[in-house]
Amino acid sequence: MLEITNLVKRYGHDEAVLKGLDLKVEGNSVVSIVGASGAGKSTMLRCINRLVEPTSGSIKLNGNELVNLKGAELRRARRKIGMVFQGFNLLDRLTVMENVLAGRLGYVNLYQAISRRYPQDDIERAFVLMERVGIAHYANKRADELSGGERQRVGVVRALMQEPEVLLADEPTASLDPRTSEQIMILLQSLASELSLPVLINIHNVAQAKTYTERIVGLRHGKMIFDGLPADFNKDALDAIYGGIEAPDDAITEPPVEERSHDFV
Amino acid sequence: MTSSDAPSTAPRTWRKPPFIANPLLRYGLIIVAAVYLVWAFGSLPFNWARISEGLPRAARIFSGGFPPNLERYELLLTGFKESFQIAILATLLGVFLSIPFAVMAARNIAPMPIYIIGRAVIIVSRSFHPVIVAILFVAAVGFGPLAGILTLTLYSIGFVGKLLAEEIEEIDWGQVEAMKAAGAGYVAILFYAVFPQILPRQVGLSMYQLDSNLRASAVVGIVGAGGIGGTLMNAFGRYDYDFAFAILLIIIAVILLSEGVSGWVRKKIW
Amino acid sequence: MVDHAQQLADRIWQRYDRKQRLIRYAVLLATLMVVVWAVRDIDIFWPWVWDAPNQISGLGARMWPPSAEGLNGIIAALIETVHIATLATFLTIFLALPVAYIAAQNTTPNRACLWLGRFILVSSRSVNTIIWALLFVAIFGPGVLAGILAIVFRSIGFIGKLMGEAIEEIDRRPVEAMEATGASKAKVIAYAIVPQVMPAFFAIVILRWDINIRESTVLGLVGAGGIGVILQGAIDTFAWPTVATIMIAIIVLVLIGEAVTSLLRSKVL
């Protein structure tokens, strides 16, 4: 269970990006977080695994407080939080298998990491997961030879290799074409139930959010202004989240093509 | 999902594919490299007895060198002045002379025999370290800044000429054809269609070359071609380490300054 | 054509307004004055200048034809030169990489290390190889060790600076991904940084090896080993035909070095 209480993030002396967020995610639910660019989605996700330092508040994963961890303790906590990125963030010049095994870096020792001599269990797990998402035959290909959808699968498998207790996905489909992004969303959805893993997905495609997730959280200017079932996410909610920022007319039926940047004034 | 989910087939293994796929080549290269290192270290004549005296000597040199002594700053000023003069004159001569050689060495506008001569001049002047050229010019025209100027002029011709020749090979050919269509002769084409395209770069290059000649002028003096290098060599030769270190520090300061100025000017021009 | 040129000229004249034109003339005038001062002030005995072409062609005539005598010694010295360049480049790698690591903004442990790294790089680059050689000959005596150390100390700055820049230019995203897996700093370096800078590393080392071959041909002039030693010897004894042979040998060596580097580049990169 992931429990966020009164999370605040402020860069320097600017206006806070996150203004006291509360969020509780339990079991194997798939939660999508929607909002315009600059609403704080990405910052919130990165506060959870502390790639961004929260200014104040509390984040608990299965009862463990994450906000005050340091050094080795922080690294141990991060092992349990898988993350999937918008730009895939793969190691382009390494093979797919090395990328996948990199998910075990928090577990193996330095010698094993550098010599790529991973434990047999890890390699077996890597093959099983790669077969599950259909990329096992690419094991020895370089990561930059794959297509976008395949690269994101590598990213997902890398995150799952961590044996995570929660999976964070930061705009996992924003760099993909519509068909591939649907596939990735289906994959995340089914993996969540197979592995009984809570998944948080930042997404700006409201249509996909409604189709593939069971709960939608809407952010605007660092505050949560919607939290409910996809069925309840109507035109009013959409206006409240995106109103005045981008044309929301067809966003319910069609994916918005481009996200526009938004400045705080 | 844990490893118990694994299918019951035999455990699959994976090893990183080696950098070089052919094992014979891979181990061959490693062995060749190792043998080379042993051979090279083994065959070089190290005078261990003399080397073992090194540390006390280093201590003596450094303690003799600190604090650096600027008492004979007049000698230092004369040396630097001469280095500047050598660098300026050599840059000017080199940048101008590099133009005809660059034209000769550009494949698209020079006939074959001329091209070979032009390339040969550039290759030869780039192959030799300026210090080697300097020692020959010292032998030919005697000690002093003249040898330094000649050396650095040749050095500049090699460097600027090569870049310029490449630049000429990449010019917009349309302008040349337009001039040809207008019935212009070879020289007219050079002046109206080729030079205007390459000259803006020449200004930036000469700033770069001035900086690089200033560095080089500090070392050609070591073999007697004038400038601060000679002053430094003399100070070293007389075991005058505190003066030598003072010169060295000032050389470093001047080089850093000149690098900064040259970079600033080039940014302004381009 | 003429009209177009005229238009172009008009546009250019608009670009340089009165003030800019004045600045251009001032710069030109200042340059001219500096050159005039340099010509008048420099310590040159002008009759020698007019005589220089004679002297140079005279020296050229004395060098011709190159003598094949002592060719074995020359080849042995060439091999020694290559050894110096290669061993020095090899040793430099181990010293330059840590310096590059601490001198790169994004990997340096703290500001003190950053400045220490930059100080090492700047001092290494600002002192010419032959001056380093002078220093090491004074310390360790004449010989190849002084030469190797001179090349190493000059190359640290070169390789370290370029590698530091390569580290600063890496893609940050894989680093973030590795941190997110809970990897330690060393593992992040091994996975997210090393593979990204590998191509730059090979290119830089190959380039420096090529430069080092050239540089090690002059070490001998201050007694630090290599072909320069016998070149100096031949010049001191006025054995001009031998000097010519050595010069040709150096050109051949440099050209071979260039051929090898371009071969390595095409194979490795």
TrEMBL record, chain A:
Its main location: membrane. Keywords: ATP-binding, Cell membrane, Membrane, Nucleotide-binding, Translocase, Transport. It is found in: Cell inner membrane. The keyword Heme does not apply. It comes from the Bacteria. Residues 2-246 form the ABC transporter domain. One of its GO terms (molecular function) is ATP binding. This is Phosphonate ABC transporter ATP-binding protein.
TrEMBL record, chain B:
It is a multi-pass membrane protein. It is found in: Cell membrane. The chain crosses the membrane at residues 24-42, 84-110, 131-158, 178-195, 216-237, 243-265. Its main location: membrane. Keywords: Cell membrane, Membrane, Transmembrane, Transmembrane helix, Transport. It holds the Pfam family BPD_transp_1. Gene3D superfamilies: MetI-like (1.10.3720.10). The keyword Cell membrane applies. The keyword Zinc does not apply. Residues 80-262 form the ABC transmembrane type-1 domain. Coiled coil: none annotated. Belongs to the binding-protein-dependent transport system permease family. NCBIfam families: PhnE. This is Phosphonate ABC transporter, permease protein PhnE. It comes from Vreelandella neptunia.
Automatic annotation (TrEMBL), chain C:
InterPro entries: MetI-like (IPR000515), MetI-like_sf (IPR035906), PhnE/PtxC (IPR005769). The keyword Ubl conjugation does not apply. Keywords: Cell membrane, Membrane, Transmembrane, Transmembrane helix, Transport. The chain crosses the membrane at residues 22-39, 74-101, 130-153, 188-209, 216-235, 241-264. It is a multi-pass membrane protein. It is found in: Cell membrane. Residues 78-261 form the ABC transmembrane type-1 domain. It comes from the Bacteria. Its main location: membrane. NCBIfam families: PhnE. Belongs to the binding-protein-dependent transport system permease family. This is Phosphonate ABC transporter, permease protein PhnE. It comes from Vreelandella neptunia. The lineage of its organism: Bacteria, Pseudomonadati, Pseudomonadota, Gammaproteobacteria, Oceanospirillales. The gene is phnE.
